[in-house]
Structure formats: C-alpha cells, structure tokens
C-alpha cells in the first residue's frame, strides 16, 4: 500500500493539486493544461500495475476537469506517450542491459521508440491556439502500440 500511495501521489494527486492552485490564474488568462499520462492508462502491465492505475485515473481526471473548467474558458488535455527514449527506467535503477533488452523486445508497429522531441511537439500543439477547440482529450502518440495485437497464424 505504501508503493500505491507513492505512485498515486506522484502521478495523480500532484497534478490535481497543481491544477487546483492554477485555476484562478488560468481563468484570468484563459490558459490551458496539458498533462503527460501514458498509454499504460489503457492497457495492462503486470510489471507496473499501480502506475497504469494512476495514469488511468489521470486520464479520467482530465475528462472530468475539462467538463468542469470549460465554462471558465480553461482547456485540459493529456498526452499519452508510448515507448519514448528517456531516463525513466534508468532513473528507477533498472540496469542499462535490461533496458536495452526490454526496448528490443517491445514490439512497436512503427519499429522504434519515440524521441522526447516528438512528444514535445505534440505538447506544444496541444497547448497552442491551434488546439483551441480541443478539451478533455487523451491523445495517444505511441507508434501504433495500442493498435498492435499479435495475429493468429494459420498455416
């Protein structure tokens, strides 16, 4: 339960708290919020179930608060990245050789992990006026990971 509390604090409650603190300013400026969730919010992962649960809750938070904040002119959306080359795993103490093996074995239809700059471009778009009619959305940028499922082989 201690691990669950920590994961919820970092991945969900912090975003809710910061959103509440920012609402008065965002209402004045008609600003918007883009949170970083994960495709883990939409698929199970037995290695990190609490992370996936927290990210699923973050997606639902974005949808709920988008409905609450829209009348105030505030938009809220989530970016849901797939495999992206960051220090996420090494920062959690996973050895480099394990990371390399995991990346190699993680089957992404487009055949590669994303660069952080690719995710940054989506965040910039979602925060821009070009996305002024978008709120309550959880946008998957995952190289096709969520559409991928192994096919039944018929000989």
Can you give a write-up of this model?
There is one protein chain. This protein has 155 residues and is mainly alpha-helical. The protein has one domain (2-144): Rossmann fold (3-Layer(aba) Sandwich), CATH 3.40.50.720. The protein has helices spanning 2-29, 49-69, 88-91, 96-105, 116-127, and strands at residues 32-36, 75-81, 138-141. Strands 1-2-3 form a three-stranded parallel β-sheet, with helices on both faces. The longest helix is centred in the first third of the chain and has 28 residues, at 2-29. InterPro entries: NAD(P)-bd_dom_sf, Sc_DH/Rdtase_CS, SDR_fam.
Helix and strand pattern:
HEHEHHHE
Low-confidence stretches: none
Residue share in β-strands: 5-15%
State the distance separating the first and last CA atoms. Answer: 47 Å
CATH topology: Rossmann fold
The CATH class is identified as Alpha Beta
CATH superfamily caption:
NAD(P)-binding Rossmann-like Domain
Largest sheet: spatial strand order: 1-2-3
Oligomeric form: single chain
GO molecular function: oxidoreductase activity
Pfam family, one: adh_short_C2
Keywords: Oxidoreductase
């Amino acid at each position: 339960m201690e691990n669950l509390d920590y994961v919820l604090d970092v991945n969900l409650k912090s975003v809710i708290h910061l959103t509440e603190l920012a609402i008065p300013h965002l209402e004045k400026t008609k600003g918007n919020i883009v949170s970083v969730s994960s495709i883990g919010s939409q698929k199970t992962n037995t290695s990190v179930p609490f992370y996936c649960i927290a990210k699923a809750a973050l997606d639902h938070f974005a949808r709920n608060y988008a409905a609450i904040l829209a009348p105030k002119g505030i938009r809220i959306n989530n970016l849901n990245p797939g495999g992206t080359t960051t220090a996420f795993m090494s920062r959690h103490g996973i050895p480099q050789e394990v990371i390399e093996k995991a990346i190699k074995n993680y089957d992404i239809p487009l055949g590669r992990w994303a660069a952080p700059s690719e995710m940054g471009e989506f965040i910039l778009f979602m925060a821009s006026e070009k996305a002024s009619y978008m709120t309550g959305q959880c946008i998957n940028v995952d190289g096709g990971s969520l559409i991928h499922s192994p096919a039944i082989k018929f000989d």
